[in-house]
Amino acid sequence: MAQAAIKNGVFIWEGTDRKGSRVKGESRAANPAMVKADLRRQGISPLKVRKKSTLFSAGKSKKIVPKDIAVFARQLATMMSAGVPLVQSFEIIGRGHDNPGMQELILNVKSEVESGTTLADSFRKQPLHFDELVCNLVHAGEQAGILETLLDKIATYKEKTEALKAKIKKALFYPTAVIVVALIVTSILLIFVVPQFQDLFAGFGADLPAFTQMVINLSEWLQSNWWMVLLAIGAGAYGFIEGKKRSPKFNHFLDRISLKIPIVGEILTKAVIARYARTMSTMFAAGVPLVEAMESVAGAAGNALYSDGILQMRDSVATGQQLQLAMTQTGLFPNMVVQMVAIGEESGSLDAMLAKVADFYEQEVDDAVDGLTSLLEPLIMSVLGVLVGGLVVAMYLPIFKMGAVV
Q1: Residue 279 near residue 388, CB atoms below 8 Å
Q2: Among the four residues 86, 99, 307, 365, which has the most C-beta atoms within 10 Å?
Q3: What percent of the chain has pLDDT above 70?
Q4: For the residues 190-199, what does the mean pLDDT come to?
């Protein structure tokens, strides 16, 4: 453990170049002596070398997200297409990254490559950030001598996948946020506003309308048991998160139910099909054998029901069955997708056909998300109106009743 820490040490240095100009920078090495030796090889006379403090950078470190990996893949592909050597590409990208966590990840991969490890094996040592699909594609690129091309395909795949995820989040975030706000506003009205009206109604000396009495009873219960509500919400959220982390059966149940939700389920289904087609197209175009590729495709599907179906397809294809027939047997794919795959298999252009399927369904998801937003806006406004308006009406009914009597 200590040796790994020394190996990955970052040093800040100052020195003078061949022209006598003062220069400074950062280098990663095992110790200051190695930094000085490296600087001298570059024609720089070192003046100061000190280890970089990790206290400040740790405070700024951000979590590495899939979008960071997508940007890294695109930068690496661009650098290699421009003729920049792999190790130097890592150095340039790593030093220029704003996220210290991502910078450390890139420079760690660079150190592995410098020590003679293949890029695919270096990625496999970082399983949290580089999935099996990426590692397999990089391995295929290294074996075939087309790493630059495969990195470009990885970058395109990651960019499109992240764009698809963003569309799904857009579809789900807006209604969820409005519902949460509506519940918070309703709770505030029941706990703080309704009791004020209750004190006013106490002096009326008459029976309250049933609707008003129901709201007052609900307010009294919420004032007495608000902690139980918060506890139930917290316990439910914790149980949900733990269930997703630890229970495959629970995940399978959620994935199956989510595909049956009206409107939203259709969007999620199209997104899964788009992800399946995009991943399969990328793997097949890279020359990865179909049976081997389908295991990575199953992991990238993003839905347990489809993952199981793809693994079932893999077993069928391994016995010599055509892909389009294996897809038909699962009952998970629309006829159009199956027919496109059948044409691709017959014409020898399966990767191109799958790419067209992916493009089509990604556009379908985009259009469906826009349509869902337009549909939900008036619906959500109606729900808010009923909740808030209902409380207001309930509070003013006794006043209207008194006015009618007078």
Answers
A1: no
A2: 365
A3: 93
A4: 82
Q: Cα(62)–Cα(186) distance, rounded to whole angstroms?
A: 36
Q: What spatial distance separates the first Cα and last Cα of the chain, rounded to whole Å?
A: 85
Query: For residue 297, which of 318, 319, 279 has the smallest C-alpha distance?
Result: 279
How far, in Å, CA of 293 to CA of 282, rounded? 9
3-state secondary structure of 28: strand
Amino acid at position 18, single letter: R
Give the whole-angstrom CA distance, residue 364 versus residue 357: 10
Mean pLDDT of 259-278: 87
Q: What is the DSSP code (8-state) at residue 189?
A: I
- Give residues with Cβ within 8 angstroms of 405, minimum separation 6: none
Give me Rg for the CA atoms of the chain: 30
In the block, residue with structure tokens 């509070």: 395
Residue 296 burial by CB count (10 A; 0-12/13-18/19+): exposed, middle or buried?
buried
- What was the pLDDT predicted at 406? 44
Closest CA to 323 of 361, 297, 301: 297
For range 325-333, the mean pLDDT:
90
Q: Name the band, by pLDDT with cuts 50, 70 and 90, for residue 288.
A: confident
Mean pLDDT of 43-50: 83
Q: How far apart are CA 316 and CA 339, in angstroms?
A: 18
Q: Which residues contact 172 (CB under 8 A, 6 or more apart)?
A: 264
Mean pLDDT of the residues in the chain: 82
Q: What SS3 state is found at 114?
A: helix
Q: What is the DSSP string of 97-108?
A: -S-HHHHHHHHH
Q: Give yes or no for residue 87 having a pLDDT over 90.
A: no
- Asked whether the CA dihedral 373, 374, 375, 378 is positive or negative, the reply is positive
pLDDT at position 152? 84
- Residue range 10-33: average pLDDT? 78
Three-state DSSP class for residue 365: helix
Strand-pair category, 22-28 with 45-51: unpaired
Q: Tell me how far apart the alpha carbons of residues 15 and 7 are, in angstroms, rounded to a whole number.
A: 23
| CA contacts within 13 A on the Cβ side of 104 | 19
Query: Quick check: pTM over 0.70?
Result: no
